[in-house]
Write a structure and sequence with these properties.
This protein has 386 residues and is an alpha/beta fold. The chain is built from 13 helices and twelve strands. It binds pyridoxal-5'-phosphate. Pyridoxal-5'-phosphate binds next to helix 3.
Length: 386
């Protein structure tokens, strides 16, 4: 289906109807085991940790959509990332972007390090820093672009080329863009992971993760750990994730259009010190981002002058949830200083632009003008002397 428009591919990815009945969705196979007609020659399905037709439909769909040979679905984005990390072994070394998702940083430094998998964190927007951190033990490079919450851009093709020339695997977390906007395997990456909790699920009603390998052998290694470690996605949640994929196109295109409008509007507001959005004029990564992605996405971060103003904004908005997470049909306003980046020392946060005035808005499907009006009234209250 590669010739078709991507939104068409999203609707029909994987087995898009039930092969047995023609039903319009793959049924939820709520099972743990399968009867074997011949105990000496087991059938295609034997135990549901290994194979479940609903999960398999999702795994085929995401493999197709990312342009890989094998997809695997997991109980969370962190289960997907952790399973991918388990294809390595004690003594191996990874070069990792310093702005990766906080949970990935935590699992690398607090869990995998104890088992002998070492990581060096570098500014992945500077390919020279990646090159300089590679040692004879390095097995992979792990990056994320745009980064969270300041939306810094890493050049995916440049990172893939470094990895290829040094015999390393290139891994990226593609959650912020989704395959609709960015397909790293087409740019030379080996493995893509997703928190499907965000844009792919899309309705803030699900925790799920996905991993896709370009090469069949790498896919077998991930699949082996998926089955051995067992952090699989259940059939109900696989079905919800498949449903999310079908509407990803219209949702994210609309959310992105609104996000662009809101980012431009924020740039003109006197209360706003700085706006972070990948396709804004003046964003340092704009050219690279536009080369590798089909748009800026639907996350906009912006900085107010003081912590008090940020807190007042969050207390006074009426439409967005004030919460962690992103990518849902409802807008979500987050406060990195106390939410996603609370564990980071204040000095380190400040050095990365994560000030106490910074907020992150995941733009949902509300009309852009309603969101602007809501943020405007909240900004005006926030700006009024108390
Ligand atoms: C949320 C998120 C994760 C973790 O996903 P879970 O589904 O919460 O485990 C990983 N990476 C990014 C970029 C995320 O936003």
């Amino acid at each position: 289906m590669s010739g078709k428009d991507y939104t068409t591919r999203l609707v029909h990815a994987g087995p898009d109807r039930d092969p047995h009945t023609g039903a319009s969705s793959i049924p939820i196979y709520q099972v743990s085991t399968y009867h074997q007609a011949d105990p000496e020659h087991l059938g295609r399905y034997d135990y549901a940790r290994s194979d479940n037709p609903t999960r398999e439909a999702l795994e085929q769909a995401i493999a197709e959509l990312e342009g890989g040979t094998r997809g695997c679905a997991f109980a969370s984005g962190m289960a997907a990332t952790s399973t991918v990390l388990m294809i390595f072994q004690a003594g191996d070394h990874l070069v990792v972007g310093e702005d990766i998702y906080g949970g990935t940083y935590r699992v690398l430094t607090a869990v995998f390090k104890r088992w002998g998998l070492e990581s060096t964190f570098v500014d992945s927007t500077e390919p020279d820093q990646i090159r300089a951190a590679i040692t004879p033990k390095t097995k992979a490079v792990f990056v994320e672009t745009p980064s969270n919450p300041t939306l810094k851009i890493t050049d995916l093709a440049a990172v893939a080329e470094i990895a290829r020339s040094r015999g390393l695997l290139a891994i990226t977390d593609n959650t912020f863009m989704s395959p609709l906007l960015q397909r790293p395997l087409e740019l030379g990456f080996d493995i893509v992971v997703h928190s499907a909790t965000k844009f792919i699920g899309g309705h803030s009603d699900l925790i799920a993760g996905l991993a896709v390998a370009k090469d069949a052998e790498v896919g077998r290694r991930i699949r082996h750990v998926q089955n051995a470690f067992g952090a699989i996605l259940g059939p109900q949640d696989s079905w919800l994730t498949l449903r999310g994929l079908k509407t990803l196109g219209v949702r994210l295109q609309q959310q992105q259009e609104s996000a662009e409008k809101i980012a431009c509007w924020l740039c003109g507001r006197p209360e706003v010190k700085k706006v972070y959005y990948p396709t804004l004029d003046g964003h340092p990564g704009r050219t690279i981002h536009l080369r590798q992605a089909a748009g800026g996405g639907s996350v906009v971060s912006f900085e107010l002058a003081t912590k008090e103003q940020a807190v007042q904004l969050m207390k006074n908005v009426k439409l967005p949830l004030v919460a962690v997470s992103l990518g849902g049909v409802e807008s979500i306003l987050s406060y990195p200083a106390t939410m996603s980046h609370a564990a980071m020392p204040a000095g380190e946060r400040a050095a990365r632009g994560i000030t106490d005035g910074l907020v992150r808005l995941s733009v949902g499907l509300e009309a852009a003008d309603d969101l602007i009006a809501d943020v405007e009234q909240a900004l005006e209250k926030a700006h009024r002397p108390q």
